[in-house]
Amino acid sequence: MEPDAPAYAEVRRLDPHRQGTASAELVPGRAVELAPGVTRVTAPNPGAMTGPGTNSYLLGNGDESLVIDPGPADPAHLERLLALADGRISRVLVTHTHIDHSPGAAWFKARTGARLVGLPPPPGASQDAGFVPDYRPAHGERLDTPVGPLKVLHTPGHASNHLCYLLESARLLFAGDQVMQGSTVVINPPDGDMAAYLAALQALGEEPFDTIAPGHGFLIGEAYAAIDFLVTHRLAREHKVRLALARHGPASLETLTQHAYDDVPEARRALAARSALAHLLKLEVEGRALQRDALWEVAEE
Questions:
Q1: Last residue within a domain, chosen from 187, 221, 255
Q2: Which residues, in sequence order, are CB contacts of 58 under 8 Å at separation 6+?
Q3: What is the pLDDT of residue 301?
Q4: Which end of the chain is more exposed for a tag (fewer CB within 10 A), N or C?
């Protein structure tokens, strides 16, 4: 396997002696032990926005288990998680309430009485409006788990209620959609906020971890480099947005997206427009862009 292969960091971590025990494929329903007491099961919901599917993480020691991101309300996936935990799931933690991450939480609450942990959903069609947390953790708080404390990190930007969970003993960050394997996430206003997202990424760089367990995709090694890449990529895109403003403004969001995201396939241009808007709103707050009559232009200094 070449170092630039998507599964390289995971296979290297899970099979350091090259015994052929790690897989380079994400298979829905397959249980993959990532660390002592930490198991990943990928949900069967692959797609353009979810990659190979949503990753659910089971943390347990045989007597008690909890789930991070149960995923969609898919009965087979949820039954699989419950079976792996021998029917004992006491808590369900969610990173955020987008509909590919949290709807399974209500199933566990009804089935096992599990307490739901996370932040309430903001308004929006992509949100799981039925998620009602029993406990709302605070930024910096540590939650006791069967495999050690989880540090809660509020990381708004992709979603205003987004949380990451850091298993300090394993230096493993459960990142939800804050960091995705192989791609960047859409920042979709009004709930998505580009300035908040960049600030949260930079704050993550101060936390002690070396591996990222994302909401979609394989484990990500060289974690700080991955975060630095995302920050650099976003700022480079912002530079293209500013160039498009200077060269083509006043212009519509559609026109600016065509120029600033000219490397994005046409089929994904509508999604790119949401992130372009997030960049423009950030520039507007910073006094570097303004909108008049649905047209954007460079703000005069």
A1: 221
A2: 31, 38, 39, 40, 41, 65, 66, 67, 81, 84, 85
A3: 65
A4: C
Query: Model-level pTM greater than 0.85?
Result: yes
In the chain, how many domains are there?
2
Q: What is the DSSP letter of 220?
A: B
Range of the domain at 199: 8-221
Distance CA 137, CA 180 (A): 23
> Collapsing DSSP states into helix, strand and coil, what is residue 58?
strand
With a cut of 50, list the residues of the chain below it in pLDDT: none
Residue 3 located in a structural domain: no
In DSSP terms, which residues pair with 143 in a beta bridge? 150
Distance of CA 150 to the CA centre of its chain: 17
Neighbours of 128 (CB within 10 A): 23
What secondary structure letter does DSSP report for 114?
A: P
Separation of alpha carbons 96 and 114, rounded Å: 17
